[in-house]
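Chain X:
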Amino acid sequence: MIDHETAQRRRLRVRGRRACNGCAAHSTAASRGHAEELFDRLLEDRTVRVAVIAIWWWLGWHFLAGDTL
């Protein structure tokens, strides 16, 4: 039997995944062959550029640097 807190965390994870999938589906549908234009429009915002750099840094630090540090 699953306790209440575990069920809540599971529902939160499912909702988060649905939100991410919805955003991905929306951006895919919005681009429809205009991916370059969409990417250029996104990168015009400084906040998005900083977020992209932070995400790439995090991925590199956790997956590429791994056991070498």
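Chain Y:
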Amino acid sequence: MIQFVFFGTAFVISLPAAKVLEWLGYKNTIAVGLLVTGIGAAMFVPAANTASYAVFLSALFVLATGITSLQVAANPYVALLGPPETASSRLNLVQVLNSAGTTVRPLFGGCSSCRNRRPAPRRTAARC
């Protein structure tokens, strides 16, 4: 279900995001996409506190909506930034950096969020 919500959002939101892009332009749509992505990420806190699968999926939908909006706006924007002959190279570079960030970010996030945590106490086996 998680994969369906995340990737299904791209299918559902792509055309509305294109309309927003038409209405707001590239830079403003990128800003809105970042804002929506941040809101979606922040929604994971209440989702974790309520331990509700529906709230978690809603947060994932909002997060994926922001990511889709970013992709709809940023890809053509990057293609327009320079000469048309090198547009495919710029798009490939952006995708490589995106993949590298997706790979490296959890390592830094894990280190920073667990830096000041104390290890859980050792449990001993109960003796009968």
